[in-house]
Amino acid sequence: MFTKKNTASLIKATALGLAVSALSACGIAAPKSEIAYAEATVQSARNIGANGYAGMELERAKNKLDQAKAEMKDGNNEAALRLANEATAEASLAQAKTEAGKASAQEKQMQQSMQMLESQLK
User: Fold this and answer.
1) Under 8 Å between Cβ of 89 and 81
2) Exposure of 117 by Cβ count < 10 A (0-12 exposed, 13-18 middle, 19+ buried)?
3) Which one has a higher pLDDT value, 13 or 105?
4) What is the 3-state secondary structure (H, E, C) of the chain?
5) pTM assigned to the model
6) How remote is the C-alpha of 41 from its chain's centroid?
7) Structural domains for the chain
8) Are 31 and 72 in contact (CB under 8 A)?
C-alpha cells in the first residue's frame, strides 16, 4: 500500500535517477573545433616543411588526429578531445623543431659565408 511518504520518496528517487541519466548521457560535446584546430596545425606544420625536420612528430600528430576523428565518430568525445589536443601539441612541436632546424641551417650557412670572407681578407 502506497502512502504519501512512500509516493513522495518514489517520485524523488525517480527524478534523481532521471537527472543522473540525463547528465551522464550528455557527457561532453563533440570536439569539432578542437579537431579542426588540430587539422589546421598539422597542415601548417606540413606547409613549413616539417617532414624534413620533424617527420616523426608530424607523423604522430597525423595519427592522433586520425584517432581523434575515429573516436568522435564512435561517440567517444572525451577520448576524441584528448587525442585532438595531443595532435595539436605534436604538430606544434613539429613546427617548433622545423623552425629551429631552419634557423640552425641558416646559422651554419652564415658562419660558412663569414669564414669565406675572412679567408678572402687575409
Assistant:
1) no
2) exposed
3) 105
4) CCCHHHHHHHHHHHHHHHHHHHHHHHCCCCCHHHHHHHHHHHHHHHHCCHHHHCHHHHHHHHHHHHHHHHHHHCCCHHHHHHHHHHHHHHHHHHHHHHHHHHHHHHHHHHHHHHHHHHHHHC
5) 0.73
6) 9
7) 28-121 (1.20.1270)
8) yes
